[in-house]
Amino acid sequence: MSWDFLRSSLWNDGKAEIAFYDVEIHWRAGAEPFTQKFTAVALLVKQSFDPRKLVKASASDPVRVESFQWSFIYDLRSNKRSAAVIAVQNDLRPLRQTYTEISWEGSCLRELALPLGGKARRFFHCQTQSEPDAAISFDPKAFTPVEIPLLIRSLDFSANKRHHFKVTLFDGSSVTATAELVGKEPVQIHGEALPAEKIKLQLSGAVPYPGGMLSLIASEETYWRSTGANRQILQIESKKEDQFDYRVRLIEEIRADYWTGKPLQLKYLKELP
Length: 273
Known about the structure:
By secondary structure, this protein is mainly beta. It has helices at residues 3-6, 148-154; strands spanning 16-27, 34-50, 55-56, 65-76, 79-88, 94-103, 106-113, 121-126, 130-135, 162-168, 174-184, 187-189, 192-194, 196-203, 220-226, 233-238, 244-256. The chain has one domain (3-254). It is globular, with a radius of gyration of 18 Å. It starts with a helix and ends in a 17-residue tail after the last strand. The model has no long low-confidence stretch (mean pLDDT 92).
């Protein structure tokens, strides 16, 4: 991984990175194919975290690590969804991954709890169905599906054009992932050609629901990563699977302390999703 990226002074300004994306998912599972289009927001913020209790830490807490919290949030047919991960800043070792859904049927939470020095567990609690909390096997050197976009941003291809890593799934099983830098290709956004590195990601096996940041993940994805200092994900395109494919494209990004309630100074979006 790139130490320069993970430890960059970019993350020390006390603000969050807020990136807005256009998302298209093409479904072919039923009798009539259809397309879902919506706007999503990705939040990335640095914070101190207690790696044993798995809660946000204060300056007085004796055990804390600097961590990234990355979330991908969207509203799909009045079904509000959030995929989030908290990972150690130095190496992106995941500590906690959550999927949250809120709909007219109620709320649903799926979580992987991966404390340092403790037992890894999974939780599945919904108002319509639940499963008993269960211990799972977890390799501390593995990652989770939700943090893959953040991991892609952190990979260093200066010496090796290909990286292999393990991804732990919600049921405790795992797949092997390969990320390969295949070249450079600009991405057109608002009429401007933004320089980007093109990275292909391949997974060795199927990922059951919930998968990546969209609750699903294809066996192959292509990422366009900005060559700028923050290595923002400009675009993601998936392989055309039997039942679905998707594309995610950046609209705009800002850095802001959104928790203060101040209006966000957006250039292209007229209203927040």
